[in-house]
Amino acid sequence: MAEILRVENLSVALRDGTEIVREVDFTLRAGEVFALVGESGSGKSVTALALMRLLPAALRITGGAVHLQETELLSLPEAQMQRVRGRRMAMIFQEPMTALNPVMRVGAQIAEVLKLHLGLKGRALRQRVIALLDEVGIPDPHIRMDWYPHQLSGGQRQRVMIAMALACEPEVLIADEPTTALDVTIQAQILQQLKRLQQRHGMAILFITHDMGVVAEIADRVAVMYQGQIVEQADTRYFLTAPKHPYTQRLISNALPQKALKPAPKNQPLLQAKNVRVWFAQRKGLLQRTIGHTKAVDGVDLTIRPGETVALVGESGSGKSTLGMAILRLLALTEGQLLFDETVDLATLSERQLRPLAQGDSGDFSGSLFGAQPPYDHW
Amino acid sequence: MSLVVLWTDALVWLLVVMLTLWSRVALRDRLVRERWQQVFASGMATASALVLLAYVSIALLDSLHFRLADGQVRSVLDLLFSHLLVQTERTYSAPFATIEYVKSVVQQNGTLQQVYQPLHHVRPDQFWPDVVWGLVTGLSVTGVLWLLRQRFSRFFANSIFARAPRRTFWFTLGLIVTMLSLMWWLSRDFHVFGTDKVGNDVLYQTLKSIRTGVLIGTLTTLLMLPLAVSLGVMAGYFKGWVDDLIQYLYTTLNSIPGVLLIAAAVLVMQGMLETNPHWFGSVEERADLRLLFLTLILGLTSWTGLARLLRAEALKLSQVEYVTAARALGAGHGRILLRHIVPNVMHLVLIAVVLDFSALVLAEAILSYVGVGVDPTMNSWGNMINAARLEMAREPVVWWSLTAAFIFMSIVVLAANLLSDRIQQVFNPRN
Amino acid sequence: MIAYLIRRLLYALPILLGVNLITFALFFMVNTPDDMARIHLGAKQTTAEMIQAWKAARGYDKPLFYNPAADGVAALTDTLFVQESLKLFTFDFGLSDSGRDIVADIRQRMGPSLALAVPTFLLGLWVNITLALAVVLFRYTAVDRMALVAAVVMMSISGLFYIIGGQVLFSKVLHWVPISGYQPGVEAWKFLILPVLIGVVSGIGSGLRWYRTLFLEEVNKDYVRTARAKGLSEWRTLGRHVLRNGLLPILTGVVVVIPTLFMGSLVMESFFGIPGLGSYTIEAIQGQDFAIVKAMVFLGAVLYIIGLLLTDIAYAWADPRVRFQ
Q: What structural domains and CATH numbers belong to chain C?
């Protein structure tokens, strides 16, 4: 297959000279998905941004060459590089929540690329925007194109980003962890969508991820980055079954579940939540009357035994944290019981009565919920 | 000779004592000390701080009052520059001039003639000796301090200036000391900034104005801070009706145009002073009381801005996870407010204090122009500008009063602005 | 949204009532009408009769809150508080202490005030935003640093110096424009151009710094990187994406002052002899005319509250995230 993009000895450093990316070499062939994997901080995103010449001010390219077909990108004047971005080489980012302009309609954001690079106008422009939204799987595209990003779900926003990137049929698409911020079910949909689109348009995709499952699903070839260097490159098949570099071996074995499942303990429950409801009133109108409720937690039963760790799993917005806050009495319960030690009902205690209990044994509820105090504590 | 304590004198010295105590306590914390050292690691901040220190020192010298044997009330600064009080002329004269600015009619040899009359208290032949003496005094004072620096080295290593660029520190210090000593020596034989309409020395006026400016800038903040911090933080933390009430309070105060509210209050205050002449014994005391009331009024009307800022910050902090965690761990409201909220908004308070200082110095000029500022008999930059403005129509222009006020005022405001910039840079948690 | 606005309007009532209470307390309780009369009639040689006559002529001889001499409802309404303070709600400002009709005065002086304030406001906004965007284009370079230093120096200089310096330079030395005065109609521009320019220049320091901070905050956001990845030039990225997002916080600070432009600028108007509401207010303050000051305080508060309301509307209009709630 033909080579589309060839990266030679690319190096990126901080202004003080610390190297972030060291002499990275790889090639992208037409119609393939090339995955760049590595843990956070390994330099994979920086590599991607360097290819687009969109590095933040603190970083700069210190050496190497990037050939897109016959064009060498690093020596291109900025004005010509602008004609490459979005047209011949496009990029989608990790955070769909923040990557779109919040005060611009999504249709207009897609139209902007088409106007800029292809000079489309009026009816043709509108038609093309609708077609693109349709192609990436947005329902009712002629209506949604006039929506603002915040009206769309995370998955839909990422689809809009993909539509924007595909608008000018680029030769190379760089996808920087495009599914990491999404829930698992949406992740799979987006991946399939990307694959379909790639087969239809025949572009090359540089896919950046830290997720081995995603690699297995989408990539044709893989390169592993570690501390700013590529330590191994291989076809996906060989890579997953017979990794050579010790770091790669660790990476792949860590991705698989390690421990055997533990049997649940059988002793007396320490905390029993019974039929817990947390409803938030929806108020409206002049007098702020309650017109309905948002049922964040609706009739949940949960039992925790001493020494046990109970994992509460769910999509974002499913009510996990609300339940945790309610158990800690940081939110008021609408209904339900919180039996502590089978005797005390936490739900009925006053804040003052709660205090001795709280000092005795909380804090290990949900570690990720509470951040550490910042260092500028007092002065 | 007996000590006279004016109201504002007492308050400004109280402020000095409080600030010293607070800084001793606060700087005991290593983290805090390091942050301050980082602030003054910048040459600009060090120079600004020294300039501010010079202004404050002059203001403090001018805040120690004595009653002399002849019944006059004078400050230490007055005693230092006592020659300026007696060396008055008849009318306007330009800086370093030897003759009056306007011709006057005199009888000479039986005919009336228009001539420039010579000034009484100017000795042109003393210019170079004064310059030499000024330089010698200034440089030798700096030199002595510099030679003594070894003795203070331990103090320096622990002070907030530990990381200050040495060269900038000594250069600025030397410059300030030398400028002051040059000014002192030259003022003995010249009117460095000229004289005003009735022949008073303008340098003396602008030096006296320093106290007015510094006092308005600091005392107002002293009065405003407790209100702003307690109300702002409480509104943001407790929310609910407490928030509603405090928001109502500051929206109401805010909705009255600032100058008008101050003007209305000052008008009322003037009326009170006029109907209660027994409150003060002398013109100085009357002017001082007016200054005190003015800072009080400015304090009561200016807490809203900072309170609003602190409310928003406290609101944000009360949602932050470590505060939720503290509540989950059973901490009470008072403890959370004092341990977690207030310390984390102190950087905002600090920046506001330094920024407000410069805003208040500028506001004094405007208020005095409008007629609701300090007492007209008091020396202040606002009164100087106001008086100079009335002479604008004069041809050629009398420019020196304005220039003197401009230089002295802009320097102190610029220093405060630069310092607050640097503090903002260091203390802003986002950087 | 409509319900929200009505709620905000109702919320304005207690605020205006509070404003009235403050001014009433200041002007009629801390300082009694007797004191006012004494100030106006001159210090010592005033007799009790003269004071009584002065008060009666202005209706200041009524009791504060309760009038036992009147019958029924009038016992509550024929009082200083209702007549002098609550009456303001009907925009009936009555006569000034020197006997002029305040509403007529305000109507007549509004025009010159607006003629000065509106161009200053619009031109100032445009200049500051353009400069700030230009500085952000050169962010973290020597140009940026120099602009910042210049801005700090500019904002450290009192506005009075800009005015006096401008008058001396352009009027006294260069004789380009008259030093002060006003003339209605087309000729007004001759008198307005200098104050407008001075107003704009004296605002550059703080405006540039504020807007620069806002734009810099936006410039590092993800959507700006997306815009660049599309192939937009830096200037277009700033002008199309950063500007529109940066304008949101600017709106909150700026819209609120629009209604208060009516009040004019105290200092500018009195320095340049423009017969607007600003100089009217200053004259009232200097002449200790409490009736006018009271009316202007109330008017200012009303305009400020309208400004707050407009801010809400403008914000909802400009920010789709608020609009679609």
A: 2-89 (no CATH), 102-318 (1.10.3720.10)
Give pLDDT, residue A362. 44
CATH number of domain containing A165: 3.40.50.300
Distance from CA of B250 to the nearest CA of C (A): 10
Q: Which residues in chain A touch residue C229, judged by CB atoms under 8 angstroms apart?
A: 52, 54, 85-86, 90-91, 93
- Residues 244-283, chain B, touching C (beta carbon < 8 A): 248, 251-257, 259-261, 263-265, 267-268, 270-272, 274-275
CB B318 within 8 A of CB B236: yes
Confidence of residue A371 (pLDDT cuts 50, 70, 90): very low
Q: CA of C58: how far to CAs of C61, C83, C95, C102, in Å?
A: 8, 11, 8, 14
Distance from the Cα of B272 to chain C's closest Cα (Å) equals 7
Band (A378; pLDDT cuts 50, 70, 90) = very low
How big is the A-C interface in CB pairs under 8 Å?
A: 83
| Domain containing residue A245 | 3-255
**Could you tell me if residue A117 is inside a domain?**
yes
Q: Quick one: average pLDDT of A340-362? A: 68
Q: Is residue A365 domain-resident? A: no
Please state the pTM of the whole predicted model. 0.83
Q: A50 vs chain B: nearest CA distance in angstroms?
A: 25
Query: Which is nearest to A194 in space by CA: A35, A302, A328, A359?
Result: A35
Q: Which residues of C touch A82 (CB under 8 A)?
A: 231-233
Between chain A and chain B, the number of residue pairs with CB atoms below 8 A apart is 62
Q: How many domains does chain B have?
A: 1
Q: Is residue B157 part of a domain?
A: no
- Convert the pLDDT of each residue in A30-68 to its tens digit: 888 999 988 888 888 899 999 999 988 888 899 889 999
ipTM score assigned to the predicted complex: 0.85
Distance CA B302, CA C230 (A): 47
Cβ of B264 within 8 Å of Cβ of C152? The answer is no
Separation of alpha carbons B61 and B49, rounded Å: 18
Phi, psi of A223 (to 5 degrees): -125, 140
- Domain contains A265: no
Task: Please tell me whether residues A249 and A116 are part of one structural domain.
Answer: yes
Nearest-by-CA chain A residue for B36: A379
Q: Best mutation site among A60, A112, A291 for testing chain C: the one with the most C CBs within 10 Å?
A: A112
pLDDT for the residue numbered A287:
64
Q: Is the separation of the CB atoms in A71 and A132 below 8 Å?
A: no
Range of the domain at B265: 211-399
Output the pLDDT for position B19.
86
The answer to whether position B256 is within a domain reads yes
* Count of structural domains, chain A: 2
Residue B225 belongs to domain with CATH number: 1.10.3720
**Interface touch A363/B328, C-beta < 8 Å:** yes
The pLDDT tens digits of the residues spanning C6-27 come to: 887 888 888 888 888 888 888 7
In the sheet where A19-29 sits, what is the strand order? A19-29, A3-14, A59-68, A71-72
Assess whether A249 and A288 both reside in one domain: no
| Amino acid sitting at position B55 | Y
Contacts of residue B361, Cβ cutoff 8 Å, sequence gap at least 6: B213, B214, B216, B217, B381, B409, B412, B413, B416
